[in-house]
Amino acid sequence: MNSNIVNSVIDNFRQALISGVHQVERSYEMYVNESNSRENEYPDSFNDYFDDWAQCLWELLVERTICAPLERLRVYGEGSDYNPNQYSHVFFQDVGESHEIICRVKKDHYAVDVITGENVKLEEYQFMRFAAFAGGWFKLSPPFDHVQLDEINALGANYKQILIPFNLVEFEVIKIST
Fold first, then answer.
1. What is the DSSP letter of 148?
2. Overall number of domains in the chain
3. In angstroms, rounded to a whole number, what is the distance separating the alpha carbons of residues 129 and 59?
């Protein structure tokens, strides 16, 4: 595991999201048109389609760069549902998750959730994805200038999601404790 390059690798991934999302939107439109023309086929939602693409990019641009063989990061966002109920990863599905990306607030800054305006402790949340802030909530679109984190150890659907500006966060890789 090469943890020295994590921030550069993750920024490169984020730039790939920014530069590629319009092609994914166009591809999705073509996919929906073709899917609707086929008998007994129902297109995925855009968010599911986007999640598949983002997970593929995550594995190629982040995981392959910083992980050694037999190491694996937790999924990006919701992961891929291309093989529903089987895998959330695109490649090397037999390798279990061994590491995760965590967020730390940069020195001399505070982590403030832009949704609520509250100061938050990032160690109580897990990194999910990059998003934009619009209309008081997050959305999966450029400029991907915020980090979405979900509350750790919350039960059921009653968990908190926060959004922190990207420029206030540093990333680290840690081993998942078993």
1. E
2. 1
3. 13
d(CA 3, CA 137): 31
Label residue 170 exposed, middle or buried (CB < 10 Å: 0-12, 13-18, 19+).
middle
Residues 6+ away with beta carbon under 8 Å from 79: 51, 55, 88, 89
Which residues are 164's β-sheet partners? 147
Angle of helix 46-57 versus helix 6-37 axis, rounded to 10: 140
Q: Which domain holds residue 87?
A: 3-175
What does the pLDDT look like over 23-62, one tens digit per residue? 999 999 999 999 989 888 888 889 989 998 999 899 999 9
Separation of alpha carbons 19 and 90, rounded Å: 21
State how far the Cα of 82 lies from the Cα of 58, in Å rounded to an integer: 15
CB 148 within 8 A of CB 73: no
Question: Is 27 in contact with 60 (CB distance < 8 Å)?
Answer: no
pTM of the model: 0.88
Burial class (CB in 10 A: 0-12, 13-18, 19+), 80: buried
Burial environment of residue 18 by CB neighbours within 10 A (0 to 12, 13 to 18, 19 or more): middle
| Calpha distance 51→32 (Å, rounded) | 16
